[in-house]
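Re: your question about Glycosyltransferase

S., sorry for the slow reply, the queue was backed up all week. Below is exactly what I fed in.
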Amino acid sequence: MPTDTTRNAPDIAVILPCYNEGLTIGDVVRRFRETLPGARIYVFDNNSNDNTAIMARLAGATVVRERRQGKGHVVRRMFADIDADIYIMADGDGTYAPEDAPQLVTTLLSERVDMAVGIRSGVKDDAGRTGHAFGNRVFNGIYRYLFGADFSDILSGYRAFTRRFVKSFPAISHGFEIETEMSVHASQLKLPVAEVELDYGRRPEGSTSKLSTFRDGLKILMMFARLMKETQPFRFFTVIAGMLLAASIFFMIPPVYEYLTTGLVDRVPTWVGAIGILILSLLTFVTGLILDSVAAGRVEQMRMAYLAQPPLRGESRASGTPATGRRGAPKGVSTATKTKRKKKAESAA
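Result:
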């Protein structure tokens, strides 16, 4: 018979996106099962051509196949399909220690945040990761400049989330830039977040990284530009308008100088082109103003979607008050039902 502690424990789902991780996924699943005995473990196989799915099933995980290639597609499917109070996302390559998962969950509950990120303390220990470590520093610096200093490791794949975060996250990315989108989503809505420094392990012999330093780095840079356009359109288009204005002034200088010295303008095409660029600069600036209002409305909608989810971070369970179900409905008899029963009792008396 379940005890009160077991009955009141949050429902935890471990979600593992995988592509050709047959060498490591079995051990990762077993260690998560030992560390979090009550958690449900899901492995989302992204078209692996090795024995990833078989090894995951043998280790006790529920395997789901996602045919659209890319980590972003997998995360979108995971967040849409899985219902839980707390979600733990990690990689199937064994670089993130399952034994650290309780620390992420404890941080999520004790600090009452919506996302706890495991900072990778050993990412530079492996000489093979030198390029990745340098890119990580660059991307984190760009992120702090564009979106704020909420995170020090935006590319970490070891994270714990509340249901509130998961069900309000739009997930529009396709590949490894999905972690960047998660961080921007939290910064944009000013969600409570926390970071926990964890060891970052090495891949075992024979296991290779799916991350391409240059290709995926370029995708992340493009994601930065896209998210800046979507979340800070006034800033984005003002930069473009400023560059166009500078170009317009540059082309205007020769005709204006010629007119002031000779009273004539022989470079008519240059003057017309400069005026055209100036008009385009003004239109770009106005576009930024209009889209800034649209972006503000989009943030309000996302905020309402976030607030529509119950704030289940363990406080109601810890205090002994009635727990909230996954769908937001209180478990047990509702307040309205109790009121109706009370009125019937009074009328009968």
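The CA atoms of residues 107 and 116 lie 7 Å apart. The chain is about 55% helix and 10% strand.

Happy to talk it through on Thursday.
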